[in-house]
Amino acid sequence: MDWLFLFEVVLSGLGSGALLALTGIAFVLIYKATKVINLAVGEMLMLGAYFFFGLTISLMLPIWLAVILTLVGGGILGGVFERVLIRPMLGESPISVFMVTVGLSSVLIGFVEFIWGGDPRTLPSFLPSKPIFIGDAYVSPKIAVCFAIASILIAVFLLVFRTWRGGVALRATATDQGAALSCGINVPAVFSVSWIVAGMAAAGSGILIGSIGGISPNMGVFGLSVLVAVIVGGLDSIAGALVAGLAIGVVEALVGTYMGGEYKLLVTFSILVVALMIRPYGLFGTVEIERL
């Protein structure tokens, strides 16, 4: 076995896994605050990538300004989705809210195809191209930089939500909404903040993923791998999203290299089935006991 090549594949998988983990945080934040399983995270990511494309190609804005505006736009859209689509559904059955996010994903795909068409596009090159070596192992500079950026953003999210007052309010709301209300926490505002931050995280992931492999209306399929990662890690666990995201990234890289890309989702969802059978609440998820 070529161990050096295997090491390179694993490093590539860790880069993809970091992006899975970053997008997984967007998923977990929404679920922790609102108990909504947002199946449109992949399409929110895709829309952020296309928004960045429009700002840089059509309007020819500088990269740094386009990144800022894309993150702000992703946050605004997340807040609008929560206020217009999700908040009116509070109190409805979980499957009804889930179907709203399914419909939202289809609407976002149709919107992007209407504005930009269905053909794949390429984002402007702004990541370094100089080869990177770890010992004798070659690492794609784009993947290495995306891994570093995703790691920094994840660390910032964790730090902010551990120390910021809003992060404390989010954790309190996730634990018990009634108790949070009785303590004076504005629970609806927490809902909005979770969607805004999740929208920003998804938009940032879209820029990074699009810079590696280009963009297309179908790039939201990345959200399926994210969904697997957060379910395996635990729907309400940021740590679970980090660990499972990295693991799924490595597994998909190995499967895609040694078995073929068409088997990646097959193996990924097989892991999901096995994980649900062994530990339904995920590796780090909260185990809930309900009386029937």
TrEMBL record:
GO terms for cellular component: plasma membrane. InterPro entries: ABC_transp_permease (IPR001851), BCAA_transport_permease (IPR052157). Keywords: Amino-acid transport, Cell membrane, Membrane, Transmembrane, Transmembrane helix, Transport. Its main location: membrane. It comes from the Bacteria. It is found in: Cell membrane. Pfam families: BPD_transp_2. The keyword Lyase does not apply. The chain crosses the membrane at residues 6-29, 36-57, 63-85, 97-118, 138-161, 221-251, 263-282. It is a multi-pass membrane protein. One of its GO terms (biological process) is amino acid transport. One of its GO terms (molecular function) is transmembrane transporter activity. Belongs to the binding-protein-dependent transport system permease family. LivHM subfamily. PANTHER family: ABC TRANSPORTER PERMEASE PROTEIN, BRANCHED-CHAIN AMINO ACID TRANSPORT SYSTEM PERMEASE PROTEIN LIVH. This is Branched-chain amino acid ABC transporter permease. It comes from Afipia clevelandensis ATCC 49720.
